[in-house]
Amino acid sequence: MFQILVVDDDPAVQILLKRMLERQGYRVMVANDGEEGIAKAVSCCPALIICDWIMPGLNGIEVCKQVKANPNLSTTFFILLTSLDSVADRVKGLDAGADDFITKPIEQNELQARVRAGLRLHQVSRDLQLQKQILESELSEAAEYVKSLLPPPMMQPLKINFRFIPSRQLGGDCLDYYWLDPDYLAIYLLDTAGHGLRAALPSISVLNLLRSHALKGLNYYQPSDVLRALNDTFQMNYQNDKYFTIWYGVYNRVKRQLTYASAGHPPAILISKQSSKTNAVKRLRTPGMPVGMFPHVKYVDGICHIEESSCLYIFSDGAYEITQSDGTVWTLDAFIQVLIDLEHRFDNNLDSILNYINSLNSKDAIDDDLSIIQIQFD
User: What is the DSSP letter of 154?
Assistant: First the structure.
């Protein structure tokens, strides 16, 4: 049974409305003024409120504003009871958040019809809110599952850390690193086009496929072969038009040699200290279209020797495609310069990098998924 709250300073109107509504099977509460009406609304969360516009103290407009500002009353249907009938008055009421109006003197059939319509909308809103809560809960569980798949930080024999920040609960970025054998370490980071669940699912599929070595006959030590196999497996015509960029590398810790290949992904940045004040910076990227965009794409390998005291950064484009307060978009070159500058500081950790990025961002949240891996070789 729906509960209705009547807010009116006129006892005669209270009695009239209470009787009319109770005859229809509704439970009815009454309040004598705006302050009492708000207090009862907060405590009982009625399905519908009928409130007089003109009252001493808080008037109907002010009551409506406070009710609509309360998240717990977001589905409550609010009807203003008024003798005012001008367009300007109705606009004022609608701007305050009123859902409907009943004009004095009250006509019983109209009252009943408007209350029935209001309660239907209340029920629809409540059902949608419940479904939204269920969906958000399921997305949160899915997001926790994705995070549980990511590798733990590594301290020996290399120091590897990362940050994984989806722009929504689920994102299209994914990353992993694991030993192919005691001497060879595979590292990759991919970025699926789009956001949300439709972008997350292909990312998880790639992670599970690579981690389980499910692509039989594939040389996982050869990055270009891995990208070719992924491109054959995830053609966008068969994968909901979702393609992804990826940077994939294999590090031989005995030879200190890094073999890598990329598919439309930003370059990995290798910073090697030449002295206490200077660094050598290399952009590690090879030509190749994003995975899934076109069939029969050729991918090639690059090879790089890792000097002592080197640091490698692998990241998605969300790390530098940041809209600044002046409306301009931050650039890859500027981001790389931040990485270089931080190498001279004791706090050259990922949190320092993210704090700098957040200081540039002109919005409350990031527009794109942001992932970054930091590998310190010595």
Answer: B
- Whether a cis peptide bond, with omega within 30° of 0, leads into 105 is yes
Q: Name residue, tokens 């590798």.
A: 151
- Say if residue 238's pLDDT is above 60: no
pTM of the model: 0.75
Rounded Cα gap, residues 114 and 146, in angstroms: 47
Task: Please give the Cα distance from 251 to 226 (Å, whole number).
Answer: 15
CA–CA separation, 304 vs 282, rounded Å? 9
Q: pLDDT digits over 148-192, tens only?
A: 999 999 999 999 999 998 877 778 899 999 999 999 999 999 999
* pLDDT single digits (tens) 98-120: 999 988 888 999 999 999 999 99
Of 112, 136, 141, 115, give the one whose Cα is nearest residue 48.
Answer: 115
| Phi, psi values for residue 37, rounded to 5° | -60, -45
Position 156, amino acid: Q
Dig out the tokens for 376 from the structure.
Answer: 């310190």
Q: Which residue has the tokens 């540039």?
A: 360
Write out the two tokens for 16. 């009239």
Nearest to 162 by CA among 151, 172, 146: 151
